[in-house]
Fold these 2 entries.
Entry 1:
Amino acid sequence: MSLTLSDIRQAAERIAPYAVKTPLLRLKNLDKALGCEVYVKPECLQVTGAFKFRGAMNKLLTLSEEERARGVIAASSGNHGKALAYAAGMLGVKAVIVLPDTATKIKVDTIRHYGAEIVFSTIEERFETAERVCRERGLVMVPPFNDEQIMAGQGTAGLEILEQCPETDAVVVPVSGGGLIGGLSAAVKAVSPRTKVFGAEPAVVPRYSESLKAGKRVKVQAHRSVADGLISLIPGDVCFPYVAAGTDGFAAVEEEFILKGWKLLVTEGKILGEPSGAITMGAVLQGLLPVKKTDKVCFFISGGSVSLEQLHALEGVEL
Amino acid sequence: MSLTLSDIRQAAERIAPYAVKTPLLRLKNLDKALGCEVYVKPECLQVTGAFKFRGAMNKLLTLSEEERARGVIAASSGNHGKALAYAAGMLGVKAVIVLPDTATKIKVDTIRHYGAEIVFSTIEERFETAERVCRERGLVMVPPFNDEQIMAGQGTAGLEILEQCPETDAVVVPVSGGGLIGGLSAAVKAVSPRTKVFGAEPAVVPRYSESLKAGKRVKVQAHRSVADGLISLIPGDVCFPYVAAGTDGFAAVEEEFILKGWKLLVTEGKILGEPSGAITMGAVLQGLLPVKKTDKVCFFISGGSVSLEQLHALEGVEL
């Protein structure tokens, strides 16, 4: 655990010319439903539509000249792959993204359009494929979350929240492997120790709830979730100690409440965030987090990776 | 034409305790598609989900004690009715909203939930019904746009835009009767004469394009538009001279381009605005407005009156 506030501040300076400082939106319309003063950090407005750009760009900028000349690689069909491809393109660094051969055409096209090379693999073998291509071509592997420079980049969002609203009482953060909440909680607790940081993860893959209870990293069974970006099975070993030290509670959110949170964000909040971000609102709707009417609570919306067709799932949901 | 900058500044002070100062969002992701530096004023985040709240609240606050004690009335099934009902409820003023008997249950429920009394009428007779009820009960009629205090309220959004980005080169505004663009252009031109103000209206009901060409108010034929909030047939007589004096160009936008603009706003901009707001992006996509790559252009998104079902219309639209 060597990540400090100074590292995160340096990351913020480093990525500033490239990243968007997303606004902190005050969504009064949602106060009643969520029982608190609602603020939203809409990372769907970030470059490539997700907070992942912060970490990927910080990582690239901390590589040596020699490493950047070799090029980078990642196995990801989601927001990390998009973010890395785009960040690499901005810096003129060669990027290879390993995609499962089941990836949708739009994902393939987007990543190719950003200038990255695509290597296809079966979904089961994509991490091995990435490792092999990485070795064979002498590339630098950029992990999606389990890395302190990635965490420092994600943590910059925490600095922004407190700059935009220093009186923030709590931040609710979507959690998968733990890179975002690890970096963000390190930033928030260093600047404002009284601000609470809560994690929200799908109840069907409760890797942090289980691990924190056990006091060590626990692997959970694979399961699909409507929060399709939050399906890691085990906390990252680099992330875990930061999360254990820097958070004030975890919510394992039922699928039904993830959908309700998503419907609230989209139809009442008017922000087209992804379900993996709206899980933060689901956590409060399910009554899993101690928020009060006078609390200023920031709901972290991780990104906007959602198609119009996916929204059909919301039509039958009751708020 | 007696509306001055000072009136609009007073309106801003008056409504400040009640209205949301909506942010000005910088949406870099849309720069390429729209060929300029894209800013969005998302009035879908305003109280009751539309800019209409500004005008309605300012009007109520400028009534005399005696008038407020009598109560207010409006014929509107859209954003104006919602805004007036809610603003009246906040101030403890009795409100009657005349709705067509075809109004959807959700609209009826929302307005009733805000505490207003509802009077039903046929769609053809709703204005006569409102006039009659207004007379019979001694209420005060609150028009949706053709009124200088309503225009002053809407104009407060123009002051905010220039405060949030003083270098704004152009503002593109959705237009129906002309209350918004009348008030907003008065504000913008008084504070920053070099900032251009452009109007966007549906090509199927081009009441301002025709009227400005003719140099007098022209009534156009009724027509449905996907921009369902922009279907006035003739410019308001109070609004028209302000619009003629304060705007730099008008775009009559084809339905196809309104849909494209809407798809861009929702799927790339991640903001769930209504099609009547997204017409501003449609105007630029259709090539109707002179914007340059280095121009800072604010697209005014009037509100968020849209259901999930309506979004189906976007699924086949090509960007």
Entry 2:
Amino acid sequence: MTASDRDDGRFSYEGLDRVIHERARLSVLTSLVAHPKGLPFPDLKRLCGLTDGNLSRHLAVLSEADFVTLQKGFAQNRPQTVCRLTASGRQRFIGYLGVLEQVVRDAAEAAESGPESGRRGLDPATKPA
Amino acid sequence: MTASDRDDGRFSYEGLDRVIHERARLSVLTSLVAHPKGLPFPDLKRLCGLTDGNLSRHLAVLSEADFVTLQKGFAQNRPQTVCRLTASGRQRFIGYLGVLEQVVRDAAEAAESGPESGRRGLDPATKPA
């Protein structure tokens, strides 16, 4: 190990809140941060590529933890739920993104200095097919 | 929604492989990509801030999916397991990091254009205390 990473928990990333980090919930939060006025359930479902049941389940978790509000109403005489990020949810999500940036930076630096890598950055061409 | 994100699954991030994405395993993989020659179990445990049992469990998952190899040997007459990233594991982890970069980019762009934000980038000062 190098001197710089001898610290306990150097790569533990405690800030990766499990409520946010789950893939589907990360999709939901990214969709909602991109739409500050909120999104109707069907639009959110489509952006996240989730089923009704899955999206409902994850929204319940996010609502319980005060990340989102779910407002029931009507649009064109049909019932509609609009999902919005709360101010606190937005703040915590931005904190989480800072940790995620750190993960990418740590790993990219390490990968670049590895023996098999001759290039800079995370070239999309290296993605598995 | 804007024209650019009308696509189905725009924010679904299918590339976030669940084997990699789990927080503890993300710690393990980042630690190992930073140490191409491998790490003894106790060093890896310390860097990731994990217990013996937790690290063993996650290494079993990663080994099963051919991300890591676990080599048992001796150091100073004591048994020692050295953990290393496989070439395929390294490649898949780099692909995953590309998707993670995309998440950060998508969310940072969205957060910057939000109504409450007057600054650029993910300022660490916005992290919750």
